[in-house]
User: Which sequence fits this backbone?
């Protein structure tokens, strides 16, 4: 499975050079692999598997917000599993579970089967806690699939303001959990 | 929001996520160092016979030991700032320092009469030495903790301890130019105590401040 990680690394490098399509692809592939990893962690802790998708989303946001901490000359697998492990433990702790997760070779984790995952993927992360401006921007881009420029037109904002609102909104989605505790 | 929607939003966000951890830590560490030096100059005078002392072996052991510790703990902090980075051999390099201290301690105790041991241990004012080193470590530790927030430490307490260790090692390095006591007995006891206290402060702060 090392070939898969090499491919992810390639996409991530392309993404940091500005290739959004490569970034979209690597995030989708990561979501598949992470879903299997998270499910395994949750079941090991005896936690409810219905939380899987929420934790996967947490990890994806963390990967996004911390992508500057990946040294592009190093393998990407240990970096991703480091983040995933941290976020799984963090989520479990917040829900009152204490777990020890071995540092696993991410390469050994097979991506989840699509069919199996489909029902869980209906789980939605609420945007309600976001300030109104950020919520509108995130909803337009994420859920309605509107481009940055169309969102700017629709919400009567500058494109720069849309970019900043999106960026801050995603940061706020990551913080949401921490403020609950 | 479904995961596919989230990914669309993440991919649309092209604003940079932050500076590389090494850059953030170098900048904040430098600021902390300058603050510590200023605090040091305000707190205590330089040792009057500093130039002369540099020709003595027991004195020179101190900068060598602290130099090794600064380098090793700096590498440690940089590694702890990134998820999945292995610590490698850096802990072994750091362990050289207590090993050198212990060797010097044994040599000193073998060559100095037993009646002088307590005097060497107490030095001129051991408690002020410890207190000052801990105080001087705080600006560096705090600055590094701030810098680590731009990283992604997956072991917050350990990363905090690393920041405290580096803060303590930097503080001790600065304090050498004041400290009038060179005996390895003194160094092994009080430098160690100060650096351990600094590391514990860092660990406590790290476990609270560095969660993300």
Assistant:
């Amino acid at each position: 499975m090392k070939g898969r990680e090499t491919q992810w690394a390639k996409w991530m490098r392309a993404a940091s050079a500005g290739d959004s399509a490569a970034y979209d692809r690597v995030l989708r592939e990561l979501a598949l692999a992470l879903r299997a990893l998270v499910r395994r962690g949750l079941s090991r802790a005896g936690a409810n598997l219905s939380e899987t998708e929420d934790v996967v989303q947490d990890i994806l946001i963390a990967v996004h917000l911390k992508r500057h901490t990946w040294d592009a000359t190093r393998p990407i697998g240990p970096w991703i599993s480091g983040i995933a492990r941290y976020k799984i433990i963090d989520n479990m702790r917040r829900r009152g579970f204490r777990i020890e997760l071995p540092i696993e070779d991410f390469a050994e984790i097979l991506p989840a089967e699509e069919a199996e995952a489909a029902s869980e993927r209906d789980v939605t992360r609420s945007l309600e806690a976001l300030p109104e401006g950020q919520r509108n921007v995130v909803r337009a881009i994420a859920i309605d699939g509107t481009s940055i420029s169309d969102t700017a037109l629709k919400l009567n904002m500058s494109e720069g303001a849309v970019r900043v609102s999106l960026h801050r909104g995603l940061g706020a989605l990551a913080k949401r959990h921490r403020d609950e505790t | 929001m479904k995961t596919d929607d989230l990914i669309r939003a993440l991919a649309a966000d092209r604003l940079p996520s932050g500076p590389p951890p090494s850059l953030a830590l170098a900048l904040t560490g430098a600021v902390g160092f300058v603050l510590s030096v200023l605090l040091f100059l305000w707190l205590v005078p330089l040792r009057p016979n500093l130039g002369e002392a540099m020709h003595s072996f027991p004195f020179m052991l101190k900068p060598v030991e602290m130099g090794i510790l600064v380098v090793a703990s700096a590498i440690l902090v940089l590694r702890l700032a990134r998820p999945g980075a292995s610590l490698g051999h850096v802990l072994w390099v750091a362990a050289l320092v207590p090993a050198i201290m212990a060797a010097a301690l044994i040599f000193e105790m073998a060559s100095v009469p037993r009646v002088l041991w307590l005097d060497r241990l107490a030095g001129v004012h051991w408690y002020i030495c410890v207190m000052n080193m801990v105080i001087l470590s705080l600006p560096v530790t705090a600055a590094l903790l701030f810098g680590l927030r731009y990283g992604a430490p997956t072991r917050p307490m350990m990363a905090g301890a690393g920041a405290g260790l580096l803060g303590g090692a930097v503080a001790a390095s600065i304090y050498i130019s004041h400290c009038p006591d060179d005996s390895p007995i003194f160094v092994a006891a009080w430098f160690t105590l100060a650096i351990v206290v600094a590391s514990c402060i860092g660990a406590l702060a790290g476990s609270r401040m560095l969660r993300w």
In short: Residues 184-209 of chain B form the longest helix (26 residues). The CA atoms of residues 33 and 197 of chain B lie 18 Å apart. The interface with chain A takes residues 1-21, 81-86, 151-152, 154, 211-212 of chain B (CB under 8 Å). Chain B has one domain: 17-209.
